[in-house]
Amino acid sequence: IGFRDVWMLLIIGACTWIAVRIFYLLYRSGKPLYNRSPGPLRTLIVLGSGGHTAEMMNLLSAMDLHLFKPRYYIAAASDGMSLQKARVFEDSLNGEAVGSCRFEQIYRSREVGQSYITSICTTLIALIHALRLMISIRPQVILCNGPGTCIPLCAIAFAFKAVGMRWSSIFYVESIARVKRLSLSGYLVYKLRMADVVFVQWPQLKDKYPRANYVGRLM
Amino acid sequence: DDGSESGRRVVFVTVGTTSFDKLVGAVDSEDVKKALFERDYTHLVIQMGRGRYLPSKCGGEDGGSSISVDYFTFSSDIAEFLKSASLVISHAGRSGSIFETLRMRKPLIVVVNEDLMDNHQTELAEELAERSHLFCARPHTLCETISSLHLDSLVPYEPGDAKPVAKVINRFLGFTDE
């Protein structure tokens, strides 16, 4: 047995292991956690411009925030308003809900109207940046509401799961502006089963995508 | 409740940060201004954003026999204008501005910009129109919509509640209701 054979065995072994993990994950995806560590969960919140952030703030206001901390807010680098809104929201909290929080910016995979060729380059840069952030944050819960910024983060969280690192529950809430069709992010997250729970805000989407959850609107 | 002191009923037109000359032009047309005046609106305020079409200002000098028109490009406090309006005519824009107007219980006509590609924002406006929370129109049908306006047919929009979503998340994570 020569070097090449050993390498081949290692690569086949690794691929098989990852394939098994992915099948296991797809099977487990969407099933509630049963082995959660006690105490509050490290939560990553992905913010998007405009309506997205407003909806996310509505959701956070309704949650038991003392169970979700510390909180990490990520917004696209080109979006200044969203992190500011998040800061204002955190400042308005009191009691047990208050926790340490961090505000980060991430490069966008693709700006609106950007050519698809340069988009590949920027997506790679965004992926690397997202990877560094995810390794630094290691969230147990990821909340996102639709902007393209969440795709690299969700993909990386899913990849982590595939190799057995850090089990994060991913919750994706499709924007209220999506009534009849899912956004590109929503479609990817739903079809590739990257999110554990996908929420839609209109019954028509629930009819079209049966695995989605419809429990009313955020706004 | 339109806060009309001394019978002042304002129609507020807003295009946000976009350029929507077709809407501004339609609103500034004689037909639409006449239709608004006949429905007892006294003032027309146009927030024209990045558009190039300039409406013609007029103070209703002809003894109050036509609607008085004013316009500006941007404002840092659109909410104030929404608050004092009796009717809001808006571009389809961001869902946030539509819900802001609905929360204030203001009658709202959303005008779709047909020149925009990927008009997914119209899905929301059309759904809300179907549920009678607002009216939907195109720039060329605006006059007709205004003439046949039935404000009584509008159903107030009840704000959504994020609690059910939070509950599903809690259950998934194994947090029992305390």
UniProtKB/TrEMBL annotation, chain A:
It is found in: Endoplasmic reticulum membrane. Keywords: Endoplasmic reticulum, Membrane, Transmembrane, Transmembrane helix. InterPro entries: Oligosacch_biosynth_Alg14 (IPR013969). One of its GO terms (biological process) is dolichol-linked oligosaccharide biosynthetic process. This is UDP-N-acetylglucosamine transferase subunit ALG14. It is a single-pass membrane protein. The chain crosses the membrane at residues 6-27, 116-134, 140-160. Its main location: endoplasmic reticulum. It comes from the Eukaryota. GO terms for cellular component: UDP-N-acetylglucosamine transferase complex. It comes from Genlisea aurea. Signal peptide: none annotated. Belongs to the ALG14 family. GO terms for molecular function: N-acetylglucosaminyldiphosphodolichol N-acetylglucosaminyltransferase activity. The lineage of its organism: Eukaryota, Viridiplantae, Streptophyta, Embryophyta, Tracheophyta. PANTHER family: GLYCOSYL TRANSFERASE-RELATED, UDP-N-ACETYLGLUCOSAMINE TRANSFERASE SUBUNIT ALG14 HOMOLOG.
TrEMBL record, chain B:
GO terms for biological process: dolichol-linked oligosaccharide biosynthetic process. SUPFAM superfamilies: UDP-Glycosyltransferase/glycogen phosphorylase. Residues 10-170 form the Glycosyl transferase family 28 C-terminal domain. InterPro entries: Glyco_trans_28_C, UDP-GlcNAc_transferase. One of its GO terms (molecular function) is hexosyltransferase activity. It comes from Genlisea aurea. GO terms for cellular component: UDP-N-acetylglucosamine transferase complex. It comes from the Eukaryota. This is Glycosyl transferase family 28 C-terminal domain-containing protein. It holds the Pfam family Glyco_tran_28_C.
